Fold these 4 entries.
Entry 1:
Amino acid sequence: AEIAPGAVHVPDWLSPDEQARLVEACREWSRPPAGLRATTMPNGSVMSVRSVCLGWHWTPYKYERHTEHGEPVKPFPDWLGELGRRAAGAGYRPDIALVNYYDAGARMGMHRDADERSAEPVVSLSLGDTCVFRFGNTDNRGRPWTDVELHSGDLFVFGGPSRLAFHGVTRTFPGTGPEIGLRGGGRLNITLRVSGME
Ligand code: MD5
Ligand code: FE
């Protein structure tokens, strides 16, 4: 379903086996060094979502090859690029993966993803607990917005005019995810992006 121009939601895009394989990959990527951690914002607040990056490390508001602790960021694997091409088309060449982990209380405030130097789409894959994804407008963090439930296995592609729309995650529904190896529950979101760097 096209939620807005360029914003396409494909429910149930990943098979249960693919979901389980991605969860296992996220578990590996989450290990130190350069593993899962919470990001501290410039105002000192700590994000409730924890994240791990592949390819390029995001820290507000830029991408670097090393984490804030000087650890080299893990490589972006070829197979993940192939998955991205299945989602966004043959010419898509992502070089960043940003994995977000949401525990029962985690939220993501309204923001836009404007730190990539490329207008290529963002591919989003949801795993585990269902969430409410708030898809806003391109002007400000307020209304109008559309609330969409994202379920485990769903694909979202944000391209064209929706690439710079404000968006966030207002809540998750603990205990709603399928048995895909996310022990302890929660929600994972993997975004694939094109850095436009180098
Ligand atoms: C999430 N992640 O569920 C979301 C899904 C992030 C983030 O927002 O920055 O890691 S990705 C949603 C997204 C990406 C790019 C553009 C738009 C939405 N959009 O225009 O709505 O953890
Ligand atoms: Fe975002």
Entry 2:
Amino acid sequence: MSADRFVSPDDIRSLFAQAMSTMYRTEVPLYGTLVDLVAEINDAVLTDNPALAEQLERNDERARLAQERHGAIRVGTAEELATLGRLFAVMGMYPIGYYDLSVAGVPVHSTAFRPRTASALAANPFRVFTSLLRLELIEDTALREESARILARRRIFTDEALALIDQAEREGGLDQNDARRFVLAALETFRWHSDATVSLPTYQALSNAHRLVADVVSFRGPHINHLTPRTLDIDAAQAGMLARGIDAKAVVEGPPPRRCPILLRQTSFKALEETVNFPDGEGGDAGTHTARFGEIEQRGLALTPKGRALYDQLLAQARDAGGAGSTGQDYSTRLAAAFTGFPDDHDTLRREGLGYYRYALTEAGRNDRAAVADLPAEALVSAGLASADPIVYEDFLPVSAAGIFQSNLGGEEQRAYAAHSNRDAFEKALGMQVEDEFAIYERLQQESLDSLRVG
Ligand code: OOG
Ligand code: NI
């Protein structure tokens, strides 16, 4: 039978992202409020700024914008992570990048599962930031062993999901009917369970070790803890959250406001305090847990290693000034001051090799193939024969992620772990290597350069 009886992984991913969004709207209604707010802001920005609308259109970013989300989950064992890797592969999502959050006092390391080709990203860029608990960072031996025992007992995938993953791997894909079954079965892994699997005292002991340990170990599965829409104006989104009385985090993470947005800026509302039922005791105990929150992000230019090094340096400068971190009143002033050192026009960013760009012939270029054949890309851009649009950053930022983690853990647990980043251990658990994000952006840029000379 031919391969076209199979639904494309891009379509399965779109179905899944939609199903996840519908589920999270029901679970956390405030998420729906954020989605509506972002849609309103994006419409206004695109109406006010036709040049940006045109650029997004040219770059295949306009259509995906309304669907664009990322989520996050945390798992407890190598087997869970490896199976997730297989589940995401069915939807064309692959592990990109390694993030060590132990340096920020969070006992996990992470990757982002996401699509990686231009056409897959244009179809639907859905990404899931996925963290693996580092049990070895729990100091109390008895508690560490108990956690491992609890985790070893749970099954976070349904039998149907496992069977369909096997089938997709064996046959090379899923047909329409099986793809629909797969999406529904996969969704079960990410659902919230208000019944804990451990007693209240065990939950409290885990929580004392680290609240994130309790979040991972105490439940039947790795509930999706947020789903983030992408805005074109995060400062408007932050103001909109406050205007609606939403308990937004104090600072927007990432770079300061700029004319040319770079990387990622994020804000969130604090995690909800939710009622949880604990087994044991007379008819069980009731308690509460905070895990699930809402987040909005703005994405900008993907930086080259050189641009990223400059970003890291300036961010550290802003955070270290006066030893105040990102909490001081004057943080936004310090941040803006530090980032005067980062060029803020696309010609300079491009010529200095600080960011990745996607090149395409303009109408003039399409009409003058002879000129195009002889000139280097930069000259084509200067001559108006080609456009160079920013390639959007599709990944995450460890400092930003740590800030989001912290604000949802009560904001007190700043203590860094002495552990080293351990990419090898992460990849061993995952059962494959994580891809280098820079290589992907480099390839996207090169493909666009190659396309100038053909057709
Ligand atoms: C993940 C936090 C990271 C982001 O946007 O940086 C993240 C988590 O809290 O599990 O989603
Ligand atoms: Ni997030």
Entry 3:
Amino acid sequence: MRRKLVAGNWKMNGSRAMLVELDAIAAAAGAAPGIDVSVAVPFTLIAAASERVPTLAIGAEDVHEAESGAHTGCVSASMVKEVGASFTIVGHSERRSDQHETSHDAWAKAAAAHKQGLNVILCCGETEAERDADRAERVVQAQIEKSVPDNADGSWFTLAYEPRWAIGTGRTPTLEEIAAIHAIARAKLRMLIGDRAAGVRILYGGSVTGANAASILDTPNVDGALVGGASLTAAKFVPIIEAAA
Ligand code: G3P
């Protein structure tokens, strides 16, 4: 049985003053012992966030694939772990579009993060043009094939399906479309890692709100949500936690 996971992703938002939002989020997580709740925050806030709400899993939004070295401006998995991160997102579509990261990069980052003992949320998802061209399933399958580490299992690895056109737009796929991609993702995981696929959570991400969370979370093979905009305030994030609980 896979526990539901509701994960926030603050992206390039937040300040020390905003950490007050985490108090109510941590309280809601505490009131929902049957699910997992986590929040990925900018590098600059990881230490303060993890000190402020030690019961909440705080993560990074990305890590470099190397452990250390001449990579100006980059941050490694061991660095974020040292300041309190317990997980990291890798392969987010904004990294793929803004920093031209590939599925191979996501694979390397996932492997590096796992080596340092971090849990990983690895993102995949098609563009609007790819969906319009009826290529969504093939694109997601190819991303999974190239980015999921051979040793992935549900103890540390989570997949997140985030159609790029649904991110921050207020648009979501139909529940049937979500179910179809999640089923395909599960089947692809099974091909790659066998029976361990059954234990891997697959999150849906893209314009999840308190209003649509319950129906999305009730969709077959949807094991939680990766939430951007609605994770920035407790007022919007807590209803999603409650919908999952
Ligand atoms: O990683 C979460 C994400 O990309 C979805 O963002 O704002 O559509 O919930 P949003």
Entry 4:
Amino acid sequence: RLVVIGSLNMDLSVTVSRLPRPGETVSGADVVRGAGGKGANQAVAAARLGAGVRMVGLLGEDTLGGELRAGLLAEGVDAGGIAQLPGVSTGLALIVVQRDGENTITLSPGANHRLDVPALEELAEPAGPGETLLLQLEVPVETVLAAARSARAAGALTVLNAAPLPALPLPSELLAAVDVLVVNETEAAGLLAPGPEPDWATHARRLRALGPDTVVITLGAAGAVAAGPDGPVAEDGFPVAAVDTVGAGDAFCAQLALALGAGVPLAQAVRRSCAAGALATTRRGAQAALPTRAEVDGLLVR
Ligand code: ADP
């Protein structure tokens, strides 16, 4: 079983012909609503990929919160670890997209930032042996650290997608408390002190020296590299007609956590995750674009 502790947001997007300048008003197309937040995206991704998933997180006691909870249930995610807080807003992303794809995003984390350590203790039993815990950084970092530590102590596999990177350096205890670290190129570079330009395989090896047993760096269309206990891994991306890369990283992380949790060898797990990421780029949107297990199987045998 997979447990995701993380963020839930509603994404409201409006497409405009030109982004407004400060002080300016621009009218655009109709609002498109989409469920988002890295935590919820990864929980839904894992459910579509065939896993039993429990999500732990906070919503506001408002309409958007109710919609997000219903959406998770419709995807078959166990929402028993999600509470709706009175007097707090559900996390919201206001997205304005220019026709050429350029965008601005204003994020209101709302209830996601109320997930402190006492709130987590109230909502979630610590993960147990045989379970996998999947974490991101859109809820307070002290909560992520506490969750990782208790999961590790209980014998669960702990996977951290260190995204988005906070402005402040990550506590070094956090990398020491996770089994698997997944980052993209920007995050990988941000976690290491600037030095001579190494290749990504070297980056992964250096990050591994900071604590995680396995480090995976995603490289967009180029696939991913990893450093694990049995040495380096490199997998090419799958050639697909990409239309929107939103959701690719979330599909990748969910698939990786599932495969490693099931004992799949690292190279094979990374390859499968690249297939899931690639499929997510072939459709628009975040959760709407996430692939099913059958689609991943189909791309792998093609
Ligand atoms: P993020 O969106 O978090 O920055 P990446 O862009 O690295 O993450 O994408 C995650 C994974 O999705 C990549 O490792 C790759 O396997 C897959 N992917 C992303 N973009 C493409 C693409 N254009 N073509 C094929 N696969 C892609």
